[in-house]
Amino acid sequence: MLDRLKAGGPAIARQGILVAFIVFMIAFTIMSDRFMTADNLMSVFRQSAIIGVMALGVTIVVIGGNLDLSVGSMLSFATVLVVDLHDKIGPELAIPVMFLATLCLGAVNGFLVGILRLNSLIVTLGMLSVIQGLVLIYSGGQNVDIVDQQGTWFALFGRGAIFGIATPIVMFGLMALVFHVIMTTMPFGRRVYAVGGNPTASVFSGIPRSRVVFTTYLISALCVGVAAVMLGSRVMGSQNNVGQGYELQVLAAVILGGTSLLGGAGSVLRTVLGVLMLAFIQNGLILMGQPYYTQWLVTWAVIIVAVWLDVAAKRGRLLSPIA
Amino acid sequence: MTPPDTVKESRPVQADAPVEQALPQGLEETLPRATADRIRPLLDNPVLRWLVRNPIWVFVLIVFVFFSLVSDHFFAARNFQNILVQTSTIGLIALGMTLVMVNGNIDLSVGATLALAAAFAVDVQSWAVFATWGNWQILPAVCLALLVGIGLGALNGFIVWKTGVDAFIVTLGAMLGIRGLVFVYTGEQSFYAMNFAYSDFSALSIGPLPALALIFLLCTLAVHLLLSRTVHGRNTYAVGGNREAAVNAGIRVGPHMMINFMIIGFFAALSGVLLSTQMGAATPNLGRDYELWVITAVVLGGTKLTGGKGDIIGTLGGVLAIGMLRNGMNLMNVPAFYVYVVLGSILIAVLFLDKRFNRTADGGLRL
Amino acid sequence: MTKTMRFLLAGCGTLAMATAASADTVRIGITQNNVGIDSYQTTYEQAFIAAADANPDVDVIVLDAGGDVARQISQMQDLIQQQVDAIIVWPTDGQALVPAVRNAHREGIPVIVTNSNIAEAGLDFIAAFSGPNNIQQGIYSAEMMCEALGGEGEIVQITGMPGYTTAIERQQGFDDRLAELCPDVVQLDIQPGDWNRERAQRTMETFLTRFDNIDGVYSGDDNMGVGALNAALAAGRAEGMVFIGATNFAVGYDAMERGEYWGSVYQSPVDDAEAALQTALDVLAGEDVPKLNYFDTPKITQDNMAEFDRPVF
Predict the structure, then answer these.
(1) Which of B190, B235, C109, C180 is most deeply buried (CB count within 10 A of its CB)?
(2) What is the pLDDT of residue C8?
(3) B195, part of any domain
(4) What percent of chain C has a predicted confidence (pLDDT) above 90?
């Protein structure tokens, strides 16, 4: 047994998720001739963009030492709002209004967690319920639709393409890059890591902890807004529960990407890997003709093994030292 | 419901409390000094003192009085029975969740475990092997269902123990995976209990108490004693409060946590079995989102996610608070859309008030 | 928070007055499946409340189970506790509700099942069922599919939320009738769309990658059907593909008008709600009500759609 991995051991051992990713890609390529085709890859990238963009924001919240479970119902809220307002005040106004409203919800999260220092799990759990109620009250429970689906430039975000690449992929890629740069090179990024890594020490070193945490929730809400624009444009309509369950998929992707729930460690780019991993598992298994629930079983194993390898590499031994 | 003052004696916190009555720190700081001085003597009254330390029961009382006044149907023995039966599902799991959370862990897989146990309980009784057993065919089915729950709990606990991966992640994975198992096992269909004796069980009453409520209350008492009177209970606080100290004190943390995961697995399964007796059936989607309601109830009851703090009395209060709110809002015909807003807001408000008035130290922000 | 409470207080104040004022009115409680999950259920609720408001002799208590069986059972108990004159239930699960319905029956409260029926074992305990025939709807869709394809082709199916009665019954009706009527139509695969347009769109995208030839798509409702259509349009493969749905939504109606959608089953939530209330009133009035009251849900296709109003949802 690999009971002891050297701390500085093979770099590959510290990339559990990358290894798993490559193994799965090879396995799916062998088992389905449809898998490794440009069409399929593009389709998976496009489908994962919505969850991906949300996962980017949640990654930053989690690095800051908190959780955000409200993103699912916030996505429902933002999508219903932007689609409903599209026909009422036009897309050029609907988009900014939606972003404003969504950022307000993010600010509420940020205020409760960042300023009042309430537990983020419970706050965002409460907000999950509150926002779901708000969506239903706003729409009266009705689906919302965009009537003129062909004529609106709103179609660009979910259905269009930029330089031949589907817009959602471009937006996801760009945002991942920007966030990566912010988190690795800018002062704000360093502050988020510091606050998440050791909140008490960060305060002593003069970092405005409350403001940093507040901002991470604004970023999360911003990402939800972007996801809502892509989703609304892709479907050209919305149901009130469209984002239900997204919070857990997003969290699973973030965790798969190796971001620690304790805060202070993690990477935006590896979250992208986590997102793609989940998307390819789902896609690959369906291409192989497996029933949809097989993906849940596979995800179960993958999450535990990937995080285990990650944790094991960090502590330098495979099994936990707990007696 | 147990009257508060009779239970007071058994609380471990009480034993440690200083002789001179002091207000909780948050309350002391918030109130004007004159007011604080004025209300401090009130704490000589054991009931009031108990309530200040258990704010959720104040809330339960408020909700109780509120609905009794505004609804014609709330204050009735029959309705209290209903509330107890309705809360037993979430309540049983919350008992196990309290142990796991006092340990500093969490279990998100309980909803899926509940569904799988319910499916086993209903399906196994119709197995051909037991065809000649008459009503006794229910026995192996229920036993198997409970074993499934304990087994899944053991699996979660074992993984947490051996891999050192955070319980949140382990059980988030299990939540998806076990739901997958439910669909594999049931083939997406609902199972249906041919034997009406099974669903008659839920209609059974012993004295004034429905059987389901009685089971819930007995389990509550048992877990309360386990947590407050036994070595295992003391260890549970020790492991959650300061793991290193617990290790130094010779507690085998790994197996200890695994036992608590098995206990919550057992209660999730028991809850699934009892729920399936109410339906005479098991459906694959049973128990979705229950983990969130259970965690809500336990946190409302004052258990900290950081571990080391919490008790069953508080959890019972949290469970009853949610149960009474739901029941009362149903009776008052509150539109479903507003129920979401009310429940979510109350959760955040209680968290806020708890932090404000019952604060001991800063922190507790993280998992 | 305070605002909500104020709202609640105001709400219950009026409620108390309303109940006090009515002496010989009937009180009917309804527990619905999952309002807000789609427009059909929401429109049903509004129509139900409107119909009840229009009748001065009826007081209604409107509850929603949020798709959770256990919550629906609790709501049944709460309604029995209030001793309403009749309970209307839209089962989240046809089998799991049987004991709850049996309890109401024992208490002498008549139960009217609406929209999707309760399992056979429960039929003895209900006063009546009122709603569409979901199996028949599946059969209709199979017949339209068969006709549109001329008896042969390769199709895929997108079902509703796994485990829910309506989804199961429609699929059952469709599968059985299709196999019987035109065995040359091959079902390539069946995957769920969870009554969700975006999820149906994703499912269809995967189908399109997986199968080079798809002649037809059957979706458990038009909301998902339009999602599938979106995916096919985006892939440039919608031409000549036959889209058949159920529960005609406004978006489906519009797509049919554009010639992109072949057909569906017309089912009005307003009829559904009014039929349920009327059935309950008939039962209370002591009339001889047949056990199964199916209201008509005709086929709607591009050819005959002019005979139907555009759905309001």
Answers:
(1) B190
(2) 46
(3) yes
(4) 47
Contact C230 A236 (CB under 8 A): yes
Contact between C93 and B282 using a beta-carbon 8 Å cutoff: no
A47 CA: distance to closest CA in chain C (Å): 7
Give the minimum alpha-carbon distance from A219 to chain C in angstroms, rounded to a whole number. 24
Cβ-defined contact of C99 to B86 (cutoff 8 Å): no
Look at the domain C134-266 and name its fold. Rossmann fold (3.40.50)
B345 interaction partners in chain A (CB closer than 8 Å): 126, 130
Q: Give residue limits of the domains in chain C.
A: 2-132+268-296, 134-266
DSSP type of residue A317: B
The reply to whether B119 and B8 lie within a common domain is no
Q: Please indicate, yes or no, whether residues B30 and B148 belong to a single structural domain of this protein.
A: no
Question: Is pTM, for the whole model, over 0.90?
Answer: no
Cβ–Cβ contact B85 with C under 8 A: yes
What backbone torsions phi and psi does residue B137 show, to the nearest 5 degrees? -65, -20
Cβ of C223 within 8 Å of Cβ of A239? The answer is: yes
The answer to whether residues B59 and B25 belong to one domain is: no
Region A207-231: mean pLDDT is: 95
Domain count, chain B: 2
Instruction: Please tell me whether residues B143 and B7 are part of one structural domain.
Output: no
For C2-132+268-296, CATH gives 3.40.50.2300
| Whether residues B28 and B115 fall in one domain | no
Which CATH number do you get for residue B126?
Answer: 1.10.3470
Interface test with A, best of C7, C209, C211, C222 (most A CBs within 10 A): C209
CB within 8 Å of A44: residues ≥ 6 apart: A276, A279, A280, A283
Write down the pLDDT at residue A11.
54
pLDDT band at residue A12, thresholds of 50, 70 and 90? low
Tell me, yes or no, if A96 comes closer than 8 A to chain B by beta carbon.
Answer: no
Chain A neighbors of B352, CB-CB under 8 A: 112, 116, 118
CA–CA gap between residue C240 and residue C215 (Å, rounded): 7
Answer for the pair B262, B283: CB distance below 8 angstroms, yes or no.
no
The b-or-e profile of B211-246 (16+ CB within 10 A means b, else e) is: bbbbbbbebbeebbebbbeeeebbbbbbbbbebeeb
Pair B18, B132 in one domain: no
Nearest to C88 by CA among C49, C54, C56: C49
Is residue B97 located within the same domain as residue B185?
yes
Q: How many CB atoms lie within 10 A of CB C95?
A: 25
Full domain range(s) for residue B125: 55-357
Query: How much is the ipTM here?
Result: 0.87
What element of type H or E holds B205?
strand B205-206
- C290 and A CB contact within 8 Å: no
Q: B30 and B155: one domain? A: no
Among all residues of chain C, which has the CA nearest to that of A40?
C209
From chain B, pick out residues whose CB is under 8 angstroms from the CB of C77: 82, 85-86
